[in-house]
Amino acid sequence: MVTLNLYRVEEVGGDYIVLADDATNVRITFAGGSGSIIDTDPPISKEENAQFFKRSVPLLVGLETPIAPLNEPRTINLFLDHFVDLFGWLRSIPFSFPVSRIEVSSTSVL
C-alpha cells in the first residue's frame, strides 16, 4: 500500500507544474522523454508532459509521501483518477513521468 498526499494544481508552466496543499508547494520540472516502459511509444517532450495537467476541470494530483526535493533526473509516479472503492479505500492510478527537478517549500501563513 502506498501513502499519498493530494495536491491541487496551482500553476502549469512551459515545462513544469506547481502543486499545493494547505502547508506545502511542490514545483515539478519535467524532463524530456516518456515515463512509459513500452519501447515503441514515441518520446514525449517536457512541454507535453506539463501540458497534460492543464485542464478546465480542477485536478488533484497524488504524490507518494514523504515528498522530498530532487536535483537529478528520474522517473516518478504522479497519481491521478482518484476514486473510492466499495470498501471505502481511496484508489488512484499511477502515471509515470520523467522529471529533472522537484522543489518543495512550505506555504507561509500570515
Task: Give the topology.
Blueprint: E1 4-12, E2 16-20, E3 24-30, H1 46-51, E4 60-64, E5 74-84, E6 90-106
- How would you write the strand order of the largest sheet? 4-1-2-3-6-5
From N to C, what is the helix and strand string?
Answer: EEEHEEE
| Count of individual domains | 1
Task: Characterize the largest beta sheet: strand count, sense, and whether it forms a barrel.
Answer: 6 strands, antiparallel
Supply the number of helical segments: 1
Oligomer: single chain
Which regions have little confidence, pLDDT < 50, spanning 5+ residues? none
**Amino- and carboxy-terminal Cα gap:** 36 Å
Content of β-strand: over 45%
The whole-number mean of residue pLDDT values reads 87
Based on helices, strands and strand pairing, what is the structural class?
mainly beta
Radius of gyration: 14 Å
Number of strands: 6
Shape: globular
The percent range for helix content is: under 10%
Task: Characterise the protein shown here.
By secondary structure, this protein is mainly beta. It has one domain (4-106). 5% of the residues lie in helices and 49% in strands. It contains 1 helix and 6 strands; from the N terminus they run βββαβββ. The chain has one helix spanning 46-51, and strands at 4-12, 16-20, 24-30, 60-64, 74-84, 90-106. It has a 6-stranded antiparallel beta sheet. The longest helix is centred in the middle third of the chain and has 6 residues, at 46-51.
Which keywords apply here?
mainly beta, 110 residues, six-stranded antiparallel sheet
